[in-house]
Amino acid sequence: MAQCLTCRAAPVCIPARIGLDDHLMQLPTRRVRVARDTHLFQAGDAVADLFYAVHYGAIKYTLSSVSGLAKISAFLMSGDMLGLDAIGHQLYKGSAVALEDSEVCAIRCSDLRPRIMLFHGILSKQIAHEQYAAHQLRNSGAGQRLAVFLLDLSWRYGQRGYSSQRFRLIMPRQDIANFLALTPECLSRELSHFRSAGLLEVDDREVTLLDARALRQLAMGTAQTGCMQDHDAPSPVPGKPCQ
Amino acid sequence: MAQCLTCRAAPVCIPARIGLDDHLMQLPTRRVRVARDTHLFQAGDAVADLFYAVHYGAIKYTLSSVSGLAKISAFLMSGDMLGLDAIGHQLYKGSAVALEDSEVCAIRCSDLRPRIMLFHGILSKQIAHEQYAAHQLRNSGAGQRLAVFLLDLSWRYGQRGYSSQRFRLIMPRQDIANFLALTPECLSRELSHFRSAGLLEVDDREVTLLDARALRQLAMGTAQTGCMQDHDAPSPVPGKPCQ
DNA sequence: CGGAACGTTGACGTACATCAAACTAGGTGG
DNA sequence: CCACCTAGTTTGATGTACGTCAACGTTCCG
Q1: Are A115 and A23 in contact (CB under 8 A)?
Q2: Rounded CA gap, B61 and B94, in Å?
Q3: Where in chain A does DSSP place strands (E)?
Q4: Residues 6+ positions from B175 with CB-CB distance below 8 Å
Q5: What is the pLDDT of residues B87-114, one digit of tens each?
Q6: Mutation test of the interface with chain A: which of B17, B63, B64, B243, choosing the one with the most A Cβ atoms within 10 A?
Q7: What is the model's pLDDT at position B24?
Q8: Which of B48, B170, B207, B233 lies most in the core, judged by the most C-beta atoms within 10 Å?
Q9: B142 with B225: CB under 8 angstroms?
């Protein structure tokens, strides 16, 4: 029901990816509310021909191992898509939990059939994104990963019309640490390190980037700071993460 | 041109994924030879609506950072698909190099249109696979990653009708190390460690798995061996890697 | 007030990288 | 055939990034 036309997230959501036109104006989307700390879906839930786009709020997507312990694989904000990895297996491999009161749009893949090639593009880009993220995470030290994370957040806020310099972290430290494959202690130390290096200011969850240039250097692995230099590959800089 | 019908790789390739039928029998695929150590494609090459499936041989797919250094993201063998991440951006993000004289089939996405939903499934599963692989790689120590790698190889050889107990590594140690985000030295040490623990035998590139059970334990992160136990997540076992 | 989450900081241990050297195996030329 | 090279692999000694354990400060809520 023509909701995309009036949606604030449209510039970064499906319409922007697929092109807003007569067809999309009639894209039937069902909106689902997800209260803070509740599941949108859990690993193992069945699904068919359906994925989600975040309308507002924030969702974390976690994958769990056989051992039951979970790792956060992505933080989704308005316009981001969720569940594209499930339509193949017809069931969710991970769990989606709201970090704050949120709302998502449920979209039926078959409704995108008129734009099928573009839908392929979306799926393909998601593959590329996952590869890139994995590449990123493997090939860098704690500081570099943190820099990439912060710049990515900054870019996404900017893209959505908020300040890319000053923003509020939607997730607790523990979640950031989990996502970056660090311990909370190490994350805290890195933040302090960044702070004392004049790169940023942190007040609880409020972050202000003071030297984005230096952060970008760090993220690229070309910084002169005490950052590890992998014998075989530092990592690319964000600025256009595909997600 | 009805090549799938007679292809030895069919049981693990597109036909197995999409269902071999009248349509697929006429799937026009162009076969491309790739000599050892030469590129099938390189990062930046343009592409449109096309991906590859390995007919025979072995290909490595590498992603490079801005800094130019490359990390191996996947080893592909017969039946594996390549380039699904490129059809969205219309250009390759990484490079594909043959580890031995190989041949691939070029497949046009639009030729799969009659089976479009299944093609979605393939793309979606690839997303899930990339997530899983990233998850895997992050959340485990050197030994665990090596165990996962070996079991994955073993499983894939078995799936293709070769012995899953005794097989020949198609890639040099350096490539394995790169793929596992380790140094060759560390990889070598882990192999020695496995050997002296009676888990396997290694003669140059010839590997014999002696205790797949113990390897599986290791891969799951539930082994009693001197393996790290991540405070927040060991990793799942292979046995059905989605690729 | 007490207690539970959460965040920060410090001391210490360990897995892995790094550096360096020896040991192969394959190739080339005498 | 041997001398000689280079590339790949293995082994050892040492350094370091980050995990682990423990203590302390905050904020929040009963």
Answers
A1: yes
A2: 7
A3: 30-34, 39-41, 50-56, 58-64, 70-77, 81-82, 94-98, 102-108, 166-168, 200-203, 206-209
A4: B60, B72, B75, B99
A5: 999 999 999 999 999 999 999 999 888 8
A6: B63
A7: 66
A8: B233
A9: no
- Strand C interface, protein residues by Cβ within 7 Å: A 172-174, 184-185, 187-189, 191-192, 202, 204-205, 228-231; B 141-143, 181-183, 185-186, 204, 226, 228
| Residues constituting chain B | 243
| Overall average pLDDT of the B161-175 stretch | 96
Q: What is the pTM of this model?
A: 0.90
How buried is residue B98: exposed, middle or buried, by Cβ count under 10 Å (0-12/13-18/19+)? Answer: buried
Report residue B91 as tokens: 């250009």
What CA–CA distance (Å, rounded) separates A173 from B234? 21
For B235, the 3-state DSSP assignment is coil
Rounded average pLDDT per 10-residue block, chain A, 243 residues: 81 88 75 95 95 96 86 96 96 96 94 89 96 91 96 96 96 97 97 96 95 94 45 39 45
Give residues with Cβ within 8 angstroms of B104, minimum separation 6. Answer: B31, B32, B34, B40, B52, B53, B54, B55, B57, B59, B82
Contact assessment for residue B81 and residue B52, using Cβ atoms and an 8 Å cutoff: yes
Phi, psi of A196 (to 5 degrees): -70, -15
The residue type of B9 is A
Judge contact between B76 and B129, C-beta under 8 A: no
A178 interaction partners in chain B (CB closer than 8 Å): 232
- Whether the Cβ atoms of residue A77 and residue A102 lie closer than 8 Å to each other: no
**Quick check: helix, strand or coil at residue A179?**
helix
Amino acid at A151: L
Chain C bases under 7 Å from protein CB? 6-11, 14-20, 25
Tell me the pairing of strands A166-168 and A58-64.
unpaired
Cβ–Cβ under 8 Å, residues A10 and A16? yes
Nucleotide showing the shortest C1' distance to residue A174 CA: C6
pLDDT higher than threshold 50 for residue B77: yes
